[in-house]
Amino acid sequence: MGAENSHWHLELNYDQWVALSVSGSRPSARYKHAAAVVDTKLYISGGSRNGRYLSDVQVFDLETLAWSSLKLSTEPNVDKINDSLPREILPATSGHSMFKWGNKLLLVGGHSKNISANLSVWFIDLESHHCGVAETTGKVPVARGGQSLTLVGSKLIMFGGEDGHRQLMNDVHILDMETMTWDVLAATQTPPAPRFDHTAAVHAERYLLIFGGCSHSIFFNDLHVLDLETMEWSQPQIQGDLVTPRAGHAGITIDENWYIVGGGDNRSGAPETLVLNMSKLVMTVLTSVGGRDPLASEGVSLSSVLLDGEEILVAFGGYNGKYNNEAYVMRPKPRDSPHPKIFQSPAAAAAAASVTAAYALSKSGKLEFSEMEDLNIKLAQGNGSQWDLASDITAIREEKKMLESALAKVRADNSSFKGKIDETTGTHADLSKAQISELQKMLESSPSIEEEVQLLRKQKSAWEHDMELASAVQRQSSGGVWKWMSR
Fold first, then answer.
1. Taking CA 106 as the corner, what is the angle to CA 103 and CA 107, rounded to the nearest 5 degrees?
2. Are 71 and 129 spatial neighbours (Cβ–Cβ below 8 Å)?
3. In this structure, are residues 89 and 45 in contact, taking their beta carbons and an 8 Å threshold?
4. What is the Cα–Cα distance from 357 to 352, expressed in whole angstroms?
5. Per-residue pLDDT band at 34 (split at 50, 70, 90)
6. For residues 143 and 120, is the Cβ–Cβ distance under 8 A?
7. Dihedral of the alpha carbons of 87, 90, 94, 100, in degrees to the nearest 10
8. Pairwise pLDDT comparison (292 vs 60), residue with the higher score
9. Which of 8, 182, 205, 318 could form a disulfide with 300, with the two C-beta atoms 3.0–4.6 Å apart?
């Protein structure tokens, strides 16, 4: 796809990758680089190729589809520069992270030839192109690469990674971007096994999700969730499509959907492009590529760019036996906003499954309430988990509104069927008895549908009553701090 059409993205089919035909030369092929989008430009920094670390910064204009190199310089007098560090242009680095903050790109972590004890934060001023080291204070983490970094408001959350001595970690650190102060987050319950080259995302500004990665001998396909309010780890089960273990994959979130591309297990690349619905924890394979496709690579990067009000995914680089330097784009199909938002701890797994089933089946119009009845019993017994029952009741009431809407539709269909029969009888006297009989059967089936919906309304009302009774029991009991969240 060439650069002559500035609206090239509108020609893309949904959920399919396309290689872009770029103007001019491309940057050198690489993997384990860092990527970030600013406006309509994709910035690529560092990475490695043939065992050599790279230090360049390349810019891909997603309107003109042309690459250019960013020329950096040092500046001696800039706020937050550590004067004890040598003045140097951006060091050659691999396995680092990069993100935009204000008018700067910040580069965190990564492996380089110069092994340091503590983690460094470099910056690139997007206006002057000056480069330097940002001074940080507090409990500065040990230097590492292959970590994940996730921005939550003005807080940067870092998990895991591998230090310069190949020591694997599963610690959690937070960098306050307003004060540039590091701190350590202490969490309870079972954390993920130490790992690197995983990917992370944040959901609802509260939940940190960790997926995949590897140790030195094991590749993972597990999902771990850290509640940033209660500081509890959990390992919920992923529903939907099964996915193989992988490391070196990349992810980006668009609304409630977490898109994941690439990765591998040192033997083969992961060909699937995945999307995880972060509210329902349902994994879907959007599309797959060939085993030697550049998108089935470890150390690939994934970003998103907003073009004409539409988010477009952009993947670059990676290694799958060959180093790559192609840019691929995908136009993700708009997806319905999920409802309700539910996260589950091990203590609430059965109850969450019941609510998830209730929502899914309410959309089909055929509900089975055995799981809900089990939930009522567990709540009435007061099993010790302190859930936000008010949110649950709100979700139930919204589902009741959906049922009432369905009932209104059934009644409208009923009236429409009657009108069709009256019209047919009055206008087409020669209409066959078989055709009239068919319409009458459709009409006769409508009351049964209406009765079913009315029954569902009664059962929903009874369940809501039980939930309110359970709320009183819950207020008298003690237990975990996990809550259900419905927004």
1. 155
2. yes
3. no
4. 8
5. very high
6. yes
7. 120
8. 60
9. 318
